[in-house]
């Protein structure tokens, strides 16, 4: 089978859906080729353990302008998460507990010191390379920057866990500039940044927003259609799918996550810069799991040691005789989302008396269409790769949260990138048309 359209969008996550909507609303024909049997990519609402759970991206905030504008457009509100009363944390080889504010107090000054150059180095979050001085710190890791603060052991360990949570990965090679970028997007206020990351959920789930965008496009959506090859030719592009079918278009928008980009063959090959960035990948290689425990627990947060398979837990849903927790760990391969006993062993070190009943989640790092969780970049990515990833090659454009300027790593970044890429594609298609007419 071979069919033609104006633009092919590979991937029906937030970047792909947004780009498709923008282009169809300008009157262009768009075909979306999506490998999975569902839309929304690294966001995924599933009924598990008796409730609709967000297995991927979840939280949004009004300081994230693109996602907020979409929610306003479709009349979708937010649901506030629980206000925490209590905290547990692991430091100096032992468990500590106290009021929730205590944990924030311990890392407040250290975080302010860590991020004090935010507004100087990244004054404009959506133009992260405006100040060339940012390149001078792009090879420094968050871990090294934290250690250089010479904090007492409790603050050092807690701050390292906090940033390992933010990166959903190990922080030894995690870019310090990525921390600055997050903080810059929150106007230099780390507490606002933290609130933006994990407080307000989308009413009806992230899928409600994805479906609203899909309903607003006339794009032709093909699910269960994995792309294997993208070839540029004189007429535009030809895309070949796993079943051998070909689809032709004037241009293609590829929204594959950075870590999955190498699964598609490009002819001609993508630039060396893009290939190098894709083969290094990004640091968000951790786990997100949902855990049902016995009894109605307090509203608590818990920070484990940085290298525990689960190093952050918060209580999220409270029923009569069970509580559902959401938890994260830095290494997706270290967490078996079906292993109740392993989860019990970690949790009881942190929260005395806790009894795990069930655990569930999705292995995003083991998922061939993601190979990662949320995009958090390694040292050097900002200065060496970001602009290159955003640079189209002929009629091939990349879009996605991994390539966003502002809240890269978030749903907001995916929408930002979908919008900007759709604009560039429309301009290129017009330019090609004008040249053909000469
Ligand atoms: C566990 C987890 C927690 C997160 N938490 C948050 C959060 O709280 N708040 C927040 O804002 N963000 C969060 N994120 C990040 C957010 O979900 C992502 O940044 C965003 O959804 C990415 O959108 P995207 O369109 O750029 O990429 P994706 O959603 O990954 O979309 C890419 C699409 O391409 C498809 N695809 C891949 N390969 C092929 C192929 N060969 N052929 C065809 N299709 C293909 C994929 O199936 C996918 O649908 C989280 C992510 C994860 C995984």
From TrEMBL:
Please tell me whether the keyword Oxidoreductase is annotated for this protein: yes
Instruction: Tell me which residues make up the Amine oxidase domain.
Output: 14-425
Do you know which InterPro entries this protein is assigned to? Amino_oxidase (IPR002937), FAD/NAD-bd_sf (IPR036188), Flavin_amine_oxidase (IPR001613), Flavin_MAO (IPR050703)
UniProt keyword Protein biosynthesis present: no
Question: Which annotated residues bind FAD?
Answer: 34-35, 227
Give the molecular function GO annotations: oxidoreductase activity
Q: Where does the chain bind substrate?
A: 328
Extract the Gene3D superfamilies matched here.
3.90.660.10, FAD/NAD(P)-binding domain, Guanine Nucleotide Dissociation Inhibitor, domain 1
Question: Which cofactors does the annotated protein need, by name?
Answer: FAD
- Could you list this entry's UniProt keywords, alphabetically sorted: Oxidoreductase
Family per similarity comment: Belongs to the flavin monoamine oxidase family.
Q: What is this protein called?
A: Monoamine oxidase
Q: Which species expresses this protein natively?
A: Crystallibacter crystallopoietes
């Amino acid at each position: 089978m071979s069919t033609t359209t104006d633009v092919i969008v590979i991937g029906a996550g937030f970047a792909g859906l947004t780009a498709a909507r923008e282009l169809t609303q300008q009157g262009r024909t768009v075909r979306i080729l999506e490998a999975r049997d569902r839309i929304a990519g690294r966001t995924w609402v599933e009924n598990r353990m008796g409730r609709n759970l967000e297995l991927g991206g979840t939280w949004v905030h009004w300081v994230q302008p693109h996602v907020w504008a979409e929610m306003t457009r479709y009349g979708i509100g937010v649901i506030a998460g629980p206000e925490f009363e209590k905290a547990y944390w692991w430091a100096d080889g032992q468990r500590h507990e106290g009021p929730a504010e205590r944990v924030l107090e311990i890392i407040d000054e250290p975080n302010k010191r860590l991020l004090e150059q935010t507004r100087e180095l990244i004054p404009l979050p959506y133009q992260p390379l405006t100040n060339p001085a940012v390149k001078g710190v792009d090879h420094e890791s968050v871990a090294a920057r934290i250690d250089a603060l010479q904090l007492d052991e409790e603050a050092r360990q807690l701050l390292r866990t906090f940033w390992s949570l933010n990166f959903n990965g190990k922080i030894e090679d995690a870019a310090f500039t990525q921390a600055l970028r997050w903080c810059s997007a929150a106007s230099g206020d780390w507490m606002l940044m933290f609130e933006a990351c994990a407080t307000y959920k989308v009413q009806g789930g992230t899928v409600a927003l994805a479906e609203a965008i899909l309903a607003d496009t006339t794009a032709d959506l093909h699910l269960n259609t994995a792309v294997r090859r993208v070839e540029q030719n004189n007429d535009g592009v030809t895309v070949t799918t796993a079943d051998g079918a070909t689809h032709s278009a004037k241009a293609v928008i590829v929204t594959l996550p950075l870590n999955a980009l190498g699964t598609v063959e490009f002819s001609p090959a993508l630039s060396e810069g893009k290939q190098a960035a894709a083969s290094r990948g990004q640091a968000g290689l951790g786990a997100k799991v949902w855990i049902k425990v016995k009894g109605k627990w307090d509203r608590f947060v818990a920070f484990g040691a940085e290298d525990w398979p689960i190093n952050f837990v918060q209580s999220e849903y409270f029923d009569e005789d069970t509580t559902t927790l959401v938890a994260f760990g830095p290494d997706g391969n270290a967490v078996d989302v079906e292993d109740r006993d392993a989860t019990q062993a970690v949790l009881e070190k942190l929260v005395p008396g806790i009894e795990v009943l069930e655990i569930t989640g999705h292995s995003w790092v083991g998922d061939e269409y993601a190979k990662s969780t949320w995009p958090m970049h390694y040292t050097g990515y900002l200065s060496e790769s970001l602009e290159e990833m955003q640079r189209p090659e002929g009629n091939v454009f990349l879009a996605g949260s991994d390539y966003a300027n502002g809240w890269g790593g978030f749903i907001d970044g995916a929408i930002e990138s979908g919008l900007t890429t759709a604009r560039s594609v429309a301009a290129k298609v017009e330019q090609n048309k004008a040249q053909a007419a000469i």
